[in-house]
Amino acid sequence: MAICRLHNRIGCTLYAWGKDPDGLCLLHSRQENKDQDGQFTDVVKKQLAEEDYNFQFVFFPGPANFFGKKFTKEARFDGAIFSGEAKFSTASFSIGANFSGVNFFKRADFFEAIFSGEANFIAATFSAEADFNSVAFSANANFSHATFSAVAAFSWVTFTKEAAFSEATFKELGAFSEASFLELADFSKATISGRMVFISINPSTKPFRGDFIGLELSKEAILRFQDLSLAQVRFYGTDLWRPEFHHVAWHRLRGGRQALYDEVLLRQREASFAKRFLSFSRQVSAPESPTPNDYGEVERLYRNLQVNYESVNDYKSSGDFHYGEMEKHRLASRWRWFPLYWYNLYWLSSGYGERPLRSVLTLWGLLLAFSGFFLGWEGELLGGWTWVGFWQALLYVFQQGTLQKPDWLKPATTGGKFLSAMMPVLIPGQTALFLLALRNRLGRRKCDAYGLPPFGYLGCSGRIDSLYCDLPLDKVSYARLMPPGIIVMDGGDGPPDKVRRALPTPAGPAQPPGPSAVIL
In this structure, are 132 and 190 located in the same domain? Predict the structure, then answer.
């Protein structure tokens, strides 16, 4: 008899199945009815009993049950096709698991599975729900280029090493609630067409380190970050006016300003380049100095983030991001080294209209400087360098700067006349910058038309274990989660139809009454 046609490709030693027109063995045959007599199931059980876990390119015609199976050797499922439900819940993979290129046409259940070795899901396709809730990944987990067409559930999962979701596609819902990423979480260049939520990441472990570089967000996409730290998360190349940020912690620079981690990395590059430049040694290895394009991209991130926070009337945070935007714009200019460059003066005088203390100190500095210089030019009129003369000069500068036009003193020198002409320009201008900065920093979070703080809209569909609402799905268009634990249900653009407090899901078999909508 002929050997399976995949012998030369993967080393399959089984004989070709007589009913397969393509010369494939019983395991690799694509015939839907190949397990009618249970022969296919028997072959799989025999292979598992022999601890032969090579199921490369195997076609599973119906449900595949590996519940609680202990794979003591490397499990090879790469290229396999699961036409029915694939059940791997509570299974353990001691060495490694390769699911690259696998097609799951029905539900893929890995609930509470344990991966002690590397888990490879590169280019895997999940056409139905993918349940990875409470899974433990002890080594690298690679989901790069994977496609999740339905719900991708990764709540309470633990990634001990790097988790790679680069260039993965999430078409419906990606749920990462109370997940733990102990190393880098790489979502760079991922495509999001539906909803993607990250809630309470690393609640009691190491800081969350993530790459959300170059995300592709469709018009309908919703990306939400809630109750987590973004202090070590990069967003280079992503439009930050689209995501929703709720109770997130950004990186805090010296002085307390909220900043993107992308700016922190730019500062580190600046410091490393300066160290290498000042050392006069080619032995010092350091990255190149940031380019204007690097500054420009971070400036764009800040601009989008500023618009995002202004849309919910959070002007305090928006002010920090406006500062970051202007700072990157200033550093990107070739005129940054010129002291009288406009943006240098704007930064020095008021912190781009965001630092009231700096503004008032600059204002007092102008008053004192004008008084000193004016006293120097007009000393004869003021009685020389005495305290009386200084206070008279300060009074004149104050009156001139507040447009009172004092007539008790007329400058006699050219220098005094020039200073007198500059006072009504610079002092009111600096006063205006101080008032602007004061307004920006003391701005309060406003309420919407219904007297509720502005929080983003959350989709309602299905249910989760922590919150529920009992409005029929056909009457719900969106829901909003209001602190502390208030759910506002709304059927359209008008006032909220119903307001209720979030309740824990009853334990045991009891369920919320009626068709339920779940807050995600």
Answer: yes
**Paired tokens of 398:** 């104050």
CA dist 100 and 6 (Å) reads: 18
173 in the same domain as 308: no
Write down the H helix ranges in 386-473.
Answer: 387-401, 414-441
Q: Is residue 147 part of a domain?
A: yes
AA identity, residue 332? A
How many CA atoms lie within 13 Å of 391's alpha carbon, on the beta-carbon side? 3
Summarised one tens digit per residue, pLDDT across range 305-331 is 999 998 888 888 888 999 999 999 898
Domain count within the chain: 4
pLDDT over 50 (residue 457):
no
- pTM score, whole prediction: 0.77
Contact assessment for residue 443 and residue 360, using Cβ atoms and an 8 Å cutoff: no
Whether residue 119 is predicted with pLDDT greater than 90 in this model: the reply is yes
Using the predicted structure, report yes or no on whether residue 400 has a pLDDT greater than 60. yes
DSSP one-letter code for 31: -
Is the same domain home to 387 and 512? no
Q: Is 237 exposed, middle or buried (0-12, 13-18, 19+ CB in 10 A)?
A: middle
Which segments of 31-120 does DSSP mark as H helices, in order?
Answer: 39-49
In a domain, 388, yes or no: yes
- Sheet with 486-490, strands from edge to edge, namely 478-482, 486-490, 498-501
What residues make up the domain containing 262?
Answer: 257-332
Element containing residue 252 per DSSP (H, E): strand 251-252
Domain match, 201 and 265 both = no
In this structure, are 223 and 271 located in the same domain?
no
